[in-house]
Amino acid sequence: MQFSIPKRRLGLALLAIAGPIIAGCSQSQHRLNADKDAYCAIAQRNGDPRWAASDVGIDMDSRSRYFDPFDPDCSPMPVDDPASHQYMHCVDGKKGWEHWGDNGVRSDLENPQWRVRLTEYAEITDDNAVRLDVDSAVQLAYVHSPLHQRNLETLYLTSLDVTGERFRLDTQFFGGNSLDYNHQGRSAPATIAFNPVLNQYDVIGPFGINESNRLNVTSDIEAKRRFATAGEVLVGFANSFAFEFTGNDVSLASSIANFSFIQPLLRGAGRDVALEQLTLSERRLLANLRAYSQFRQGFFTQIVIGELGVTGPQRGGLSTSLQSFSGVGGVNGYLGLLQQSQQIRNTEGNLRLQLRTLERLEALYDNELIDIVQVDQFRQNIEVTRANLLDQTNSLELAIDNYKTQILGLPADLPVDLDEELVQQFQLFPIESTSLLVSLLKLQDRIGEIGELSDLATRVEILDEKLSTLSKQNFSDVDRTLRRLQTLVENAAKRARLVDALQDEEPGQLSQQLSDATKRLETIIDSLTESNFADTIVKESRGFSEMLSGCQTVLEQSDANDLSREPEQFLHDVQQLVDPVRELFSSARSDLQRLEEVAPERQRSMNADEKARFKRDRERLNERLDELENGESGFDVAVQQLKELRESYSAKNRLQTIRGLTAWVQSYLQLVERLSLIPAQARLEVIGVDEVDLEPEAAFQIALDNRLDFMNGRAALVDSWRAIQVAADALQSDLTITANGDVRTARNNPVDFRGSTSRLRLGIEFDAPLARLLERNGYRESLIQYQRNRRNLIQSQDSLQKGIRALLRTLQQRRLQLEIQRRAVTISLRRVDQTQLSLLTPPPQVQPGARPQINPTTAINLLSAQGALQTSQNSFLAAWLNYYATRLRLYRELGVMQLDTSGRWIETAVDFAVANDSETTDSLAPPIPVDPVPGDDLELDFPRQVNELEFGQRLPPSQDTGRAALADQPAALDGWSTDRIGHPPVHVAENRHATTK
Questions:
Q1: Can you tell me the distance from the alpha carbon of 694 to that of 698, in angstroms, rounded to the nearest whole number?
Q2: What angle in degrees, to the nearest 10, is found between the helix axes of 568-575 and 654-686?
Q3: CA 750 to CA 311: how far, in whole Å?
Q4: Long-range contact pairs involving 102-110 (C-beta distance under 8 Å, separation at least 24)
Q5: 876-918 per-position pLDDT tens digit
Q6: pTM of the complete model beyond 0.85
């Protein structure tokens, strides 16, 4: 039975079969296949816990700012530069490709949803700012950082190199089909040919020939394979169908099967050469996986202290020049931001302290107990402090912007809120005491205003009497009276600007009159002499009376505004500050109790004298607290005095009560200031560090055993050592075995193969090593490069040892500096306390008629003490942060920093005592099974000139026999002891490299 298939259906079926074959896989499928092979290659090496990574995918997190929401294979075109874009449509007068815009145009480069999705993994404050601490900074960096993404992509690209080398040594299949039609006409064109009859060249033709219309359809498939021995085999099969449409329409079907085999025996032969590129790529992938694991350690230190300290994965070859700690390192990163923030807080606290002190100095100046020079000196220092505060604030904002853009990969306009829990322990002064001091200062100003009104009223009465008898006074008395009037008018002018009732009733008139009177009095006093003072009194007596009347008006109005409600309201307000101070005492006792709890831990690193001093300091703190609470001028006495003032108050003794409250507020303010120093001292003593007890020799051995980059460095040295053998191979003769053959079909049948149609060719090719100058130079270069790398690795070990020794010394230095700065802060606190008390000490008695004044160096002492407190606080903070940063660097440099899957440091204490007790550690895999070179059979080779035939005498034979083990076990060299690196050159009796394979 015959079946007939319609030609149309047959054509569609052939098209359906041939279409996918012609088109091949889609772009997406190629991308997915590349990912599958690359991740598989990485996973084969990702099982060792020393460098295993939980996530090595290069697809960006969908929450990332850099995530691309579009199909990577059909991505829309970014916005182009208009001037450049025109060349995509027309270049050199030629029309460009018209499908550039088929996928559309994207307006934004970054992920438009990344800000919205911040709430999924970051804490957002009420001010719509991202709460930033160490954990959140690490998470944000892993989601957004381009640096981390770049290192992941480098690791991925290295795995692609591995897949390429594996493919090169794998069986590769090729197949295709060709279709061609040839037409030959009936005539051949004229041509020049030699005529033997005439013995000359003539033009002959045209000739008549057979017409031909032939269609050839050829299909072929072949497989190619490279062997680990450097041989190569090619097997192919092809069939051909020829159709001749001229005449009787004949056709021919034929097939051929062929093969080709090449195997070098000397040059280019052997597994050492054939597997070299694959071995290198496999070892580089392992090295980059380790480098990525170490990069994660450095990435954490970069986030926290602003220092990467590692190189990360590299696409090129490995290096024996390894990076180690240089011996210099500061505090940047997140800790640097906290340091700047706390320094700003210290400056603000110092500024508040200076402002409080300035008010006291101004009060002393008003009472003529201090000269204006000291007051102005303090005022000038306050302005300098304000300017410094502005600089510090601006520097912090710039540092935050740099941190967001350079470390986290976030834009500078993203608002962040620093979580300062880590440095809260350095906020020595209780926050409650600050608010209490602010409230007490307001009350002090308030009661001072009330007391000043009473004092001014008394001075008005005295001056009224003095002015009435001014004509009877001598020159000195007149001068003194007018100066007192000038002071009174100045004070009244200040108050006139603050009294609302006066402003409403006489808008600015009285204030202006008093200001003019102040200037007028200054002119009169400056021009007053013994010869004209009598005439001046007669001329200005009426003006003096008007000035005094204006002062009286201001005082009366002020009395109506203030004294009408006082001191009843003041007594009520000041009573509200009793319980907060009592709570401050309770908080201080809690701080002292916490100090006693941590005292045993603090004393572990102290000697006997330091322990005794520490004990005395704790006892003094408790004694001072008891004195402030129960002493003669303590809290209990102050509460009792306030109770007596409240109970004894009446309208008749209002002024007396005001004077008593003025003294009470001053004493209470001093009590709170001195009380705040006790928790500050206690909190200061509580702060400590985790001591690291590690000997330099043990630390160096730990680093050699655990540093992933030094594992890579040892592998890189062996790579350069293997390169010597590869370069030496090129010096040999070319000796190659070749074989090829084919078998064809004999008849018009595509499967009618017959042995009689077969052909076979066997051969051997030899090329003498007569022109090997370039190869010789390459070999000599490989020898030099190996020695360079060997020296580099030795120097890298020296650098590592130097860096670790420097880190251990720095740790010890930072710990001692912490104790030094702790004592400096203690001394500064005591100085501030004593200098503040000096303001309350009555000035010494002077001769009759002279005005007593306090110490002329009071302002300098105050500024020095307060400046020293701020400086010592900043230095103490810097010492602690530097110790923390140095400890973090030490863990990274030792290679013992453990991270969780999210990249956060698992801050577990490492038992370094075990490392100190043991001479070596056994954290690495055992060494490769290569017999060590026996030292007794070796002869030291001192530097000398050698000829090129002696190169083989510098490598031991056991390493030649172990070459296969080196290629098959790329990770095994990690277990090599470092004492195998740096041996002097040796002579071996047998020359292995001079022999042929």
A1: 7
A2: 20
A3: 62
A4: 103/70, 103/74, 103/75, 103/76, 103/77, 104/76, 104/77, 105/76, 105/77, 105/78, 105/79, 106/70, 106/75, 106/76, 106/77, 106/78, 106/79, 107/79, 109/78, 110/65, 110/66
A5: 999 999 999 999 999 999 999 999 999 999 987 566 655 565 5
A6: no
